[in-house]
Structure formats: C-alpha cells, structure tokens
Amino acid sequence: MTAVALQDHDLARLRWRARRGLLENDLIMSRFFDRFGGTLSTADAQGLERLLDLTDNDLLDLLLARKEPDSQLADAEVQSVLAKLRSA
C-alpha cells in the first residue's frame, strides 16, 4: 500500500489543530511541520490526529520520551509520526 500525500487544505487544517496551550508543544509541532509538512501522508495525519486528542501534558510527556504510548496508541501510524515528532 502506497502512502498518499496530504492535500494543502488538509495540511493547513492539521497544522491549525496542532496549536497547543503549552509553548513547548507548539515549538515541537512547528518544527515538525516545517521539517515534515510537505511529506506527510494520510497515515501520518491519522496518527497525529490521535496524538492531538491527548491533553497537553500527556502529549508533552510522549514528545519528550518521558513515557511511551499506551496500548491504545501503539499502532504503526502513531509510532511513525511520534518518531518524526521526537526527531523534529
């Protein structure tokens, strides 16, 4: 199965949704979109959407590798986008 790239409007919507209340999360998200925004697939977007459902503090703990995703977030889509976020 090949990855399908996001349309510009989908990327813009995702970037808007990624705005967070914690500055640290915003900085990581901004770097992530600057680095990977043009290459994100629909699978990446689905994984990111699931991460964005978390509270700011839980998300920051994952981004800084203070903890690992629980079983509900242990699928390949989330793991892939989390690795990209952590490297951003």
Written description of the protein model:
- The protein is mainly alpha-helical and 88 residues long.
- It has one domain: DNA polymerase, domain 1, CATH 1.10.150.
- Helices cover 62% and strands 0% of the residues.
- It has helices at 8-17, 23-36, 42-52, 56-63, 76-87.
- It is globular, with a radius of gyration of 12 Å.
- The protein starts with 7 loop residues before the first helix and ends with a helix.
Features:
DNA polymerase, domain 1; mainly alpha; 5 helices; single chain; 88 residues
Question: Topology, pairings included?
Answer:
Layout: H1 8-17, H2 23-36, H3 42-52, H4 56-63, H5 76-87
Protein name: FAD assembly factor SdhE
Subcellular location: Cytoplasm
Family: Belongs to the SdhE FAD assembly factor family.
Low-confidence stretches: none
Order of helices and strands: HHHHH
Task: Note the total helix count.
Answer: 5
Identify the overall geometry. Answer: globular
Number of domains: 1
Structural class per helix/strand content?
mainly alpha
CATH architecture: Orthogonal Bundle
Question: What is the average of the pLDDT values?
Answer: 92
Summarize the main sheet: none
Work out the radius of gyration.
12 Å
Helicity level: 55-70%
* Approximate strand percentage: under 5%
Q: Which CATH C-level class is it?
A: Mainly Alpha
Task: Report the CATH superfamily.
Answer: Flavinator of succinate dehydrogenase
User: What's the β-strand tally?
Assistant: 0
